[in-house]
């Protein structure tokens, strides 16, 4: 799937703007609080495949008063034209697994250390919306944000890659509590728990993210990517000795590249 398909972004309810080193992905279905569908995830995956090496920071945002209210509820009401997610329970397991893996691909590329990803989150970030924000490296939130992992309350589980970054951000015990109670986490608590880098008034969200995105591309591209990879490895549980070895290897590659004049 590529962006060469003319209406892929439109079907997915997304817009994409690439300006130099920055790409901005906007969820653009404000009338539905930017609810997500499989087309949304396909379009996200296609964007990830299409971005060139010159793009060093990706901002994910939502139009209107909410970031994303999560899964489009129409998917819980099957029709002949749209069987809905319940249909995954009636097909062979390997087919269902492959389908969900395709959905996850729309989110997983956002954690690639080749670039920094930032979620600008206002209003509702529910279920799939929460998981989309969690897929990004950094989250800046408006003071009206409401994070909620709603899936368990609906009888399903978070399956768009949200469990890993949630536990990594807040720890196992707090992740259990957030997921199983389905409660909402506001801006102040999100910053305290490490779910958000900072919280700002809603009217200042875009400006705060613009400032951050500009600062994030100030380091030379190859050094930034190498540093991201080191930090990601530590966050993923790399032991101290392995982290030291990774730093040595990365630094040797950097110095050789600089000595060769290749940046």
Automatic annotation (TrEMBL):
Family designation: Belongs to the enoyl-CoA hydratase/isomerase family.
Species lineage: Bacteria, Bacillati, Actinomycetota, Actinomycetes, Pseudonocardiales
PROSITE patterns, per database record: ENOYL_COA_HYDRATASE
Superkingdom of origin organism: Bacteria
Species whose genome carries this gene: Pseudonocardia oceani
Keywords annotated in UniProt: Lipid metabolism, Lyase
InterPro entries membership: Enoyl-CoA_hyd/isom_CS, Enoyl-CoA_hydra/iso
Protein name: Enoyl-CoA hydratase/isomerase family protein
